[in-house]
Amino acid sequence: MKDSDSIRCIARILYPFMLLFGCYIIIFGDVSPGGGFQGGVILATARLVTLYIPEKADIDVEIFNLAEKLLFLLLLLLGLLSLFTVGGLFTNVLSAELPHEIRRWFLVILNLAIGIKVSSGLTLIFTQFVKEGE
Amino acid sequence: MPMLTLILLMIGLGIYGMATSRHLIKSVIFLNVLEASVILFFLRLFTSDPGAVPILNGNNGAYVDPLPQALMITAIVIGASVTALTLMMSIKLYHQYGTLDWKTLLEVEDRQ
Amino acid sequence: MIKKIRTPLLIIMLIFIFLFSLSGIPGILEEEPDSTIGDLVIERGYSDTSSKNLVAAILLDYRLFDSVFEAAILLISAAGVLYMTRLPLKDKTMKGGKGNERQ
Predict the structure, then answer these.
(1) CA–CA separation, B83 vs B18, rounded Å?
(2) Which residue has the higher pLDDT, A92 or B33?
(3) Which of A59, A107, B64, B69 is deepest in the core (most CB within 10 A)?
């Protein structure tokens, strides 16, 4: 199946659109269906599609592992930050008096962090599975 | 309630399969069936019938309870992690012992 | 004797546990309460968290603690997968059931 021309062609066309769709799901996670986890899974699935493209660039797993660790630390810091600005742990950093359009950006940043973290973790898992099967 | 019957059947199928299957991959599959049944259970039984998606859109309609959905996304992610770890463990077991049969693996474990 | 009735006993016990857990769900055995947490979230979710998606409001504000450690579970699982692929095989391989004759 890996040698099929049609699948390779469709995978090439589909790959950027899947990345775009995943980014859309992550960024608009607080006003439409979606969120960090769902969009991250879509971004990781886009990596699976590239298995059908023979001349893909080889990726280093260590980068994904490092990104996941750092983004988890960032998530913890974002959770702890609200203790100093609002007074409670693990809530919105921006205070409730600000308008909704400004407070919304905290959710966007949080969604982005969770989405990139989940996508790098799942990409790592998929890549290791493919490597183990070969 | 046909949905409750289906969920009960799925829970029974999952427990039966996990108790009786001798192949490791089959055990993982039945674990996923059990997990899917729990997710279905939460999503179906905690929703009121005339309910919209819980995304505010201006008009005051009846929304579905958002709490079980938020809990179930957690369950789905954890289930995916557990499945990935279990499958990788079975791959390594197969490379080591050449079989994925529970009984054979236990015998090998006893002999060592 | 006990071996014969063990499996049906286990199944009956599991069904009983399931039905017992149903009693905690409103609307099945008990009557529904006046208001639930979901009603509270629908009512004040937007003014509290400024997120129109109420599921995201729960995930990213009310229960951010859960979400962060859910991400931690994924991190631990990915690290476990990475560790396991680098694990070297032991010498005493028993491929194809050849090890069955060895004591």
Answers:
(1) 14
(2) B33
(3) A107
The chain-wide mean pLDDT, for chain C, equals 80
For residue B101, give the DSSP letter.
Answer: B
Please report the residues numbered 25 through 84 in chain C whose beta carbons come closer than 8 angstroms to any beta carbon of chain B. Answer: 25, 27-28, 36-39, 41-42, 45-46, 52-55, 57-59, 63, 66-67, 70, 73-74, 76-78, 80-81, 84
CA C28 to CA B4: how far, in whole Å? Answer: 11
Domains and CATH numbers, chain B: 2-111 (1.10.287.3510)
Distance (Å, whole) CA C22 – CA C14: 12
Domain membership of residue A18 as a residue range: 5-133
Q: CA B14, CA B34: separation in Å to the nearest integer?
A: 5
Produce one character per residue of C39-57: b if its CB has 16 or more CB atoms within 10 Å, e if not.
eebbeebbebbbbbbbbbb
Domain with C64 in it = 35-87
Tokens of C103: 């004591």
Token pair for residue C25? 């769900």
What ipTM did this prediction achieve? Answer: 0.87
Q: How many domains does chain A have?
A: 1
